[in-house]
Amino acid sequence: MIAEPTRSLTLIGAGLAGSLLAILLSRQGWRITVYERRGDPRISDYESGRSINLALAERGRNALRQAGVEDAVMAKAVMMRGRMVHPREGDPLLQRYGRDDSEVIWSVHRNDLNIILLQLAEEAGAQIHFHRRLHTVDFDAGYARFIDDRDDHPHDIHFCTPLIGADGAGSALRAAMNRKCPLGEHTEFLDHSYKELEIPPGPDGGFLIEPNALHIWPRGRYMCIALPNDEGTFTVTLFLPNEGDPGFSTVRNGEEAEALFARDFPDALPLIPRLRQDWEQHPPGLLGTLYLDRWHLGGKAVLLGDAAHAMVPFHGQGMNCAFEDCVVLADKLLHASSAEEAFAAFEAERKPNAAAIQQMALENYIEMRDQVADAGFLLRRELEQELQRRWPTRFVPHYTMVTFMHTPYAVALERTRVQHRILVEATDGHDSLATVDWAALERIVHDALPPLEGAH
Ligand code: FAD
Ligand code: E1W
Q1: Which ligand approaches the C-alpha of residue 217 most closely?
Q2: CA-CA distance, 161 to 25, in Å (whole number)?
Q3: Which of these, 7, 17, 21, 421, is most buried using a 10 Å CB contact count?
C-alpha cells in the first residue's frame, strides 16, 4: 500500500479512459485531479454536435461494472447481434457474432458515455479542470504548463504527484516524457483514412435499416460500416485508401463521393441525405498504430489507453482495451508499495496484450474488407462453429475470445494462430464439412488447445 501523504495523482485527459480511471481511483481513496483540454461536455453549448458511436464489448463492460456505471451506460446502448453484410448485389445477410443473445456487442455514444463517466468521477470526489490543455512538463521542478485554448492563456501548475497520461493518441504527456527520456516511440500510419457520415431517422422517427446489427459493406480494398444510435440514426464510416482509385486523393469533393456511393454502395446512398455536405465539412481521419518501448518514467509518469498504444479501429477494441488498462492500473496502484512499482507492473502486464490487440486489429481490416463473403472463409467459419460446438472449452473462435471473454489478448492471439492452422489444414481441398475426419480433428484439437479459462 502506498503511504497516505502520497496518495494523490494527477490525470491528463478526461476522455474515456481518464474519466473511468478517475472513478476507480477516487473510490480507492486517492485524491484525483484531472486536466482536460476541451470544455465540459455536460454544458449545453459544447462544440461537437455530431454523434459518434463506439462498439462496447465484454472487456469494456467489465471495467464499467467494476466502476459501478454499467447499468447507466447500458440503458442507452443499442444491441448489435452480428454483422449485417451488404454485398454489391443481392440482399444483406446477418452473420451472428456469437451463439445467442448473451454474445452480442453494444453501440454507445462517445459523448453520452463520457458525460456519464465524468459525472460519476466528480461524485466520487475527483476534481476536474476543463479548458486545460497540457503543453509542457518540467519534471525536475514539478511544474506543468497548461493552455486555455479559448484565450491562449498559459496556466503554470505546481505538482508533487505522479502524472497519468490518458490524453489520447496525440498525447502531450507522452511528448513531455519523451523529451525527458526517450520512450522508443514509433508510429506506423495506415495508408487508409476514414470519413464519418450520418443516416438520419426515418419519417416515423424509427431506424431506416436493421437497428440491432453492425452493418458492413465490404468492397475489397475498402469498406463502409454503420453503427446504430439510440435516437434512430446511424453513424456511417467509410474507410478508403489515401492514394489510388477510389482513394481520398481521387475522391476530392462531395460530388465525387456521391458518385463513389452510387457505384459501390447503391443501397446506402439514398439513406445519407447530407453526404455531400458532410464529406466537405469533415476532414478525413488518420489511422495508425503507436508503439512504445516504455510506458512509464520511473514513478513520475505513466501512459495508458491510446496515449500508450493507439491502434487501428478494425476490431472495435481501442476503448475496450483502454478500459481494461484502467482496471489493471488501479489494481496495481492498490497493491504496490510505490508508484514506480505499480507503473512497472502495469506496463509488464499490459504491453504484450496491447501489442497483441494492435496486431489483431490490423489483421481484422483485411478480413472485414474482402474475406467476409469468400467461399473458403465461409467454410472455415462453418468448421470453426462446429469445432466450438463439439469442444467448447478448447476451440473458442477468435472473435469470441477477443469480444466476449477476458482472455488476455496475447493468449487470444496465440490460440488464434493455432486454430487458424487447424482450420486451414482441415478444409484444404474440401468444399463442404461432409468429408472432414472428425476423429483426427479431435486428437489435433486436444493436443494443441488446452481448456481455456472462462470458456463454456
Ligand atoms: P481519448 O478518448 O482520445 O481521450 C483523450 C482525452 O484527452 C480527450 O478528452 C482529449 O480532449 C484529452 N486531451 C488530449 N490532449 C490533451 C492535452 N494536451 N491536455 C489535456 N487533455 C488532452 N474503440 C472501441 O472500443 N470500439 C469501437 O467501436 C471503436 N471505434 C472507433 C472508430 C474510429 C473511427 C476510431 C478512430 C477509433 C475507434 N475506437 C473504438 C477507438 C477508441 O476511440 C479509442 O481507443 C479510445 O477513445 C481511447 O480512449 P482514451 O481515453 O485513451 O483517449
Ligand atoms: C466489431 C470501427 C469498427 C468497430 C468495430 C468493428 C469493426 C469492424 C469496425 C469488428 C468486427 C465492433 N468490429 N465486426 N465484425 N467482424 N469484426 O466487432 O466494433 Cl471497422
Answers
A1: 2
A2: 14
A3: 21
Phi, psi of 236 (to 5 degrees): -100, 135
Task: Name the residue with cell 474488407.
Answer: 369
Stated length of the chain: 456
Name the grid cell of 323: 478500459
Take residue 312 and report the three cell numbers written for it. 487501428
CA–CA distance, 436 with 325 (Å, rounded to integer): 42
**pLDDT at res. 413:** 98
For cell 464489448, what's the residue? 57
β pairing state of 296-297 and 301-303: antiparallel
Class of domain 4-75+109-186+288-363: alpha beta
Bridge partners of 199, per DSSP, are 234
Q: Whose CA is nearest to atom 38 of ligand 1?
A: 313
Q: Enter the DSSP assignment of 5.
A: G
226 SS3 class: strand
DSSP assigned state of 33: E
User: In terms of DSSP H, where are the helices of 306-430?
Assistant: 306-309, 318-335, 339-366, 375-390, 398-403, 409-427
Asked if pLDDT for residue 442 goes beyond 90, the answer is: yes
**What H or E segment, with its residue span, contains residue 135?**
strand 133-138
Q: How far is CA 381 from the centre of its chain?
A: 24
The DSSP line for 174-200 is HHHHHHHS----EEEEEEEEEEEEEE-
Amino acid at position 287, single letter: L
Cα 351 to Cα 143, 289, 292, 317, 411: the distances in Å are 28, 14, 9, 15, 13
Q: Is the pLDDT of residue 336 over 70?
A: yes
Name the percent of the chain lying above pLDDT 90. Answer: 94
Cis peptide before 270 (omega within 30 of 0): no
With residue 291 as reference, give the H or E element that holds it: strand 285-291
Nearest-CA neighbor of 20 among 76, 69, 74, 71? 69
Identify the pLDDT of residue 423: 97
> How confident is the prediction for the chain on average, in pLDDT?
95
Pocket test for ligand 2, best of 58, 79, 193, 225 (most atoms within 8 A of CB): 225
- Between the CA of 153 and the centroid of ligand 2 the distance, in Å, is 41
CA dihedral sign of residues 265, 241, 403, 206: negative
Distance 69 CA to ligand 2 centre (A): 24
* Angle at alpha carbon of residue 354, lines to 335 and 82, rounded to 5°: 115
At 372 the pLDDT is 59
**Spacing, Cα 160 to ligand 2 middle (Å):** 41
Residue 385 makes CB contacts below 8 A (sequence gap 6+) with 397
Q: How distant is the alpha carbon of residue 174 from its chain centre?
A: 20
Evaluate: CB of 315 within 6 angstroms of ligand 2.
yes
